Amino acid sequence: MRRKFTVTINGIAYEVEVEELEEVPEGIPPSDEPSGLVPAVSKVSPQPPSPSEEALEEKVIISAPFPAQVLSIKKNLGDNVREGEVLLILEAMKMEIEISSPRDGIIDEILVEEGKRVELGDKLLTVK
Amino acid sequence: MIANKDPFPVFEVLESGALTTIQDLGRFGCQKYGVPFSGAMDDFSLKVANLLVGNDSNAAALEITGLGPKLKVLNDTGVALSGADFNAALDESPFRGWRLVRVRKGSIICIKEARRGFRGYLAVTGGIEVPEVLGSKSTYLTGKMGGLDGRSLRKGDIINSSSPEVSQVRMPLRFLPEEYVPVFSSRVEVRIIMGPQDDCFDDEGIKTFLNSWYVVSLNSDRTAYRLTGPKIAHRQKADIITDAIPQGAIQVPGDGQPIVMMADRPTTGGYAKIACVIAPDILKIAQLKPQDEVRFRKIGIDEAHEFLKDKETELTRIRKVLEAQATVLTRKKYQVRVGDEVYQVQVEEIPDE
User: What's the pTM value of the predicted model, to 2 decimals?
Assistant: First the structure.
């Protein structure tokens, strides 16, 4: 397959035709941006390190996405929660905003009360 | 792209976000029957998102509020996120706004909190397919009409696009150049024209209105932004003979606290309107969240027309810029070292004619 490129080297533009001489292996991982380049020049990104045991012990802080009022708290201290489970509901601008857990874990701290006003970035609870 | 009336599923809603609705540019020509206008709160961002995915600027998209949804992609397609700057991810990588992004079946789009601004738009190639109600796909929440059954999105909803599968081969690179990307602030000055009932206020009232910062209240929504701040004094009373409410009208009821009327506003009202926000500045209000601040600056109607013209010209220019980009498939920059020589290399792929 022959493809056309404009290649600018140190400010000088060249019209270039590129022909692939070897078959490209199947199963190139998809990227979020259309990649027109052949794998020979594409950068191989290192695999993200797998979370260690210690990392899993770490707390995740869940904070208010914008000023709101705490409508109801759905979980108690020490409850087991699954990723995506609703932890508490905020109310602002006539919207009820479900705040869900970003991961599996245990409710470690509850830092707000029902009916209380919270500001942008206020800590609501932590999951570990 | 061929139009296809068969529903083409693009997203499954895994988490709804704070308030995610389907909006186009609004329900034209129905206010005389008492049907509110609705439509995107920030029309500029909706138009650009649509242009980025190759749609008509009026196509329906998702309007996202403050905290975005989590969506599973059901078919390969193109999407673009515009408006507020959201903390967002496409699978494991950051999902950047103001550009066409190709998404694949099975991918997860996770839009979290807005870092700057408050409302975003997620457009999809072909536009979101829902039945038109009175000529529009916009959701009017209070009236429970339009969009998806007249309501905001819920977990488990399936969102369809009106376009068949996008060719997987290659899609043009398309992004809004930095100089056109609006930067939203939490403290804004908004331009207004006075009236039509500014004569209901005494000089002191007008002075207070024009010289004070007002804070966005928690009970603002798509209908109106309620502001709190120094009390605006009326000459006598706040009531007028009910008349029409345009987009951006600033009503002042008896408590002297201004209310900016937005997309889902009722068509008429009986409070005196001290002023009206000019059309190109409506989005500045729409992008405010609770506790943000706004101040009003008086301009003349001729000036207001000029600013509107400028905004339209800007959009025409953006359209041209995006069309020109369609001739480049990818653009990448490399630093290449050959022996001791270092070369700055930019590679653009041009589609075959």
Answer: 0.83
